[in-house]
Amino acid sequence: MEGNRVMDLITEKKKGSLLLTEHVNGFSLFLNGHPVVEHTTRKPCIELGSAEPRVVSKSGFFKLKERKLSMSQLKKWKVLALTPSSVHISFGATASVVFELINNMLIISPKVANTAYNRFKMHISAIAPGERIFGGGEQLGKLNLRGKRLPVWISEPGVGRRFDPITIGFALKTGHVPRWFNTYYSMPVWVTSSGMFCSLGSSAYSQIDFRSRRRYTVTCWEVPHTITIGVEKNAADAVAGLGRLHGLQPRLPDWVYDGLILGVQGGTEVVAKKLQRVEAGKVPVAALWCQDWEGRRKTRFGSQLKWAWEYDANLYPRLPDYIQRLKERGIRFLGYNNTFLTPGSSM
């Protein structure tokens, strides 16, 4: 492009501000006064490619690798259309992206004509170099993700997080080495200490790279539907903005405050005896949490849950009747389930 152009797309107070500046070698997109997407021919903001996945799963652990990975930087760019609240930019004949301001959030919607592309990478500018990063869903190993590359995928967490005797023993017995990012609840969402929040609209495997001080790199094993960015005054407002995007957790039911939630297992007979002992001590019980409601199985690691997702009639005979009797006493029965299935089970 020749010369510089500045386009203030929208500056209404309630909706925030979106500013596009063009220069000879690229463009910058500002959200609420902060550059969030910066593109130059030397450092393109988007890359596309393809690869063949290699995924190995065993006992809830995953190893994800790639073969024949090929990525291309999308250097060419052109503004196709402008509206009072959006800009449509093409990146050569390969892809185009709509950047739209909705409810003080920048919604990035990439479009790719060739369905052979199954790898997508985008660079997002930090609003403050070195800001602290929080999120990624439930993280058991790290609080501040600054300096880390976070894989986003559900996996069995395993036992341990460091090279200690417990972790080493688990690894030697099972062949699985627990990683700091293994979690039951992984999400491609983060908030920064400076007030940015970001959410990747994809359920495919992804990685978020927080190792650079000045930009974050999102890599996805598909072209995502959207990438949503918000820039607020501080971290608390960013958390609130993320809540507006995804919704808030529902209020907990009142009964959870009525007593102890007792974590027990071993079958109806064992559970009933432990409940009786607790109640004999005048301790109010709101619920029983029995993780082995679906049974147990023997593995190389020992006795593990069956993951069959129907109640075990040997451990918990006539479990629905037992649950009803507990509820009549004001005690709930809780279990758990996950996304894994045991080979040989009915499912």
Give a written overview of the molecule.
- The chain is mainly beta and 347 residues long.
- Helices cover 13% and strands 41% of the residues.
- It has four helices and 23 strands.
- The strands form five sheets. The protein has an eight-stranded antiparallel beta sheet, with helices on one face. A six-stranded antiparallel beta sheet has the order 6-5-11-17-16-13, with no helix packed on it.
- The longest helix is centred in the last third of the chain and has 13 residues.
- The chain is elongated.
Query: Main sheet, how many strands, which sense, barrel?
Result: 8 strands, antiparallel
Instruction: Please estimate the helix content.
Output: 10-25%
- Total strand segments: 23
Average residue pLDDT: 90
Q: Helix/strand-derived class?
A: mainly beta
> Which strand order do you get reading across the main beta sheet?
7-8-9-10-18-15-14-12
Helix count? Answer: 4
Q: What topology does this entry show?
A:
Elements: E1 5-10, E2 18-23, E3 26-31, E4 34-40, E5 46-58, E6 61-73, E7 78-83, E8 86-91, E9 95-102, E10 105-112, E11 119-125, E12 133-137, E13 149-152, H1 165-174, E14 186-192, E15 196-201, E16 206-209, E17 215-220, E18 226-231, H2 235-246, E19 260-263, H3 268-280, E20 285-289, E21 296-299, E22 302-305, H4 319-328, E23 332-334
Parallel strand pairs: 19-20, 20-23
Antiparallel strand pairs: 1-2, 2-3, 3-4, 5-6, 5-11, 7-8, 8-9, 9-10, 10-18, 11-17, 12-14, 13-16, 14-15, 15-18, 16-17, 21-22
